[in-house]
Design brief:
The strands form two sheets. A two-stranded parallel ribbon has the order 1-2. A two-stranded antiparallel sheet has the order 3-4. The mean pLDDT is about 95. It is an alpha+beta fold. It has helices at about 15-35, 60-69; strands at about 5-10, 40-45, 55, 55-60.
């Protein structure tokens, strides 16, 4: 039973986009590894940008900084 955890920042991914991710990952595991789609679990966690850091700074700060400069 494959378990896939996708983490994305909470920037407004639509229900359709998330459904496409779930379907696409499930299909990929079925086609590539022969995994049963009925037992494949895909979880999408949406993380607030201030809780996601890159290079010592939050994504929220980095995005604000890039808009300014």
């Amino acid at each position: 039973m494959p378990y896939v955890n996708i983490k994305i920042t909470d920037e407004g991914a639509t229900q359709e986009q998330k459904a496409a991710l779930i379907e696409g990952v499930t299909d990929l595991l079925a086609k590539t590894l022969g995994k049963n789609p009925a037992t494949t679990v895909v979880v999408i966690d949406e993380v607030p940008m201030e809780n996601w850091g890159i290079g010592g700074q939050s994504v929220k700060f980095l995005r604000q900084k890039s808009k300014e400069g």
